[in-house]
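Below is how a single chain appears once it has passed through the pipeline. First comes the sequence as given, then the structure the pipeline wrote out for it. We keep one example in the README because the format questions we get most often are answered faster by looking than by reading.
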Amino acid sequence: MGVEEQTAEPTQNEAAAAAETEGATATAEAELTVETTATGTRYPIAPGYRVNVRTGPGTSYRIVRTMPYGQKIPIYCQKPGERVTGPYGTSNIWDNIANGQFVSDAYVYTGRDGYIAPRCD
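Resulting structure:
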């Protein structure tokens, strides 16, 4: 006597949940793609975060603006500053994204730890 394998088709709710999970995974992977274009490389802010842009490399510097969800940013140079903990670990590296504008590298997906751009003067 053999053992019968029983399979069941997923319910409509289970199928919808699986499709939603797959869609969320695909979206998260797309959000973490470093983008290289004719104008340069752009790095994604961690999914689900709105990151403050500051006038210098630390949280005591004035907030200039807040990046919207899903934003990709250029990194022109990087500078050591205040140590910050974010979704990509703890780092004292701050990314210069425009003249006088910095974000903590702990919130930017660069694909590796450490400096990926020249140090700011």
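Residues 1-11, 14-30 have pLDDT under 50 and may be disordered.

See the next section for the split statistics.
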